[in-house]
Structures are given as structure tokens and as C-alpha cells.
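Researcher: Structure prediction, please.
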Amino acid sequence: MPTNRPPFDPLEEALKVLEVCSEKYSTPHPGDVFTVFIGRKDGVTVEPLARIDVYARDGVASSSVLLNTAPRFDTEQVCYAPEDDVVTIALKIISGLVRNNE
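Model: Predicted structure follows.
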């Protein structure tokens, strides 16, 4: 939890964790469609925070996001490079969402 400010919202928290752990969780994207699950682990219990369904093709990714605190919504498209993996594409999507919420 950050000091001297309110706690991160789930997407901010996911962004920070992925930024720190991107090498550890690096996975090539398996095709045009993949899903990213985001949760908060407390001991052996995982609290689901978000599900991001991604469609990535020809350098452009779009997604649908379902948060545990809001109805499903679609995101703006983001561009990605052919060598970008799942985490990098997810970071681009989540970064856009966090920027739009500021």
C-alpha cells in the first residue's frame, strides 16, 4: 500500500505489479485472443479483481474489461510490436485505463 496517499485502485495495483514482475511473467501471446486475470492474493485466498479479454492482431489490440467493482466495458485500441508478449500488451492496455482514470 502506498504511503501518504490513498491505496491503489485494482488497475493501478495490477499495473505496478506487472511493471515490477514483467520479466517473471513474460509469456508470448498465444494467438489473436487471450485473457488476463488479475487478482489479489492473501495467503492461499485469491480475490478476483479484473478480467481482461484481449483481441490482438496486426499490431492493434482491443479489449473488454470486467472489474469486480464495475460493469464490463470496452477499452480504446492500443498498438503493439510483433515481439510484444502478453504482459507488455496488458501493460499498454492497463496504462491507458489508468491514465484515463486520472
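Model: Residues 10-101 form one domain.
Researcher: Thanks, that helps.
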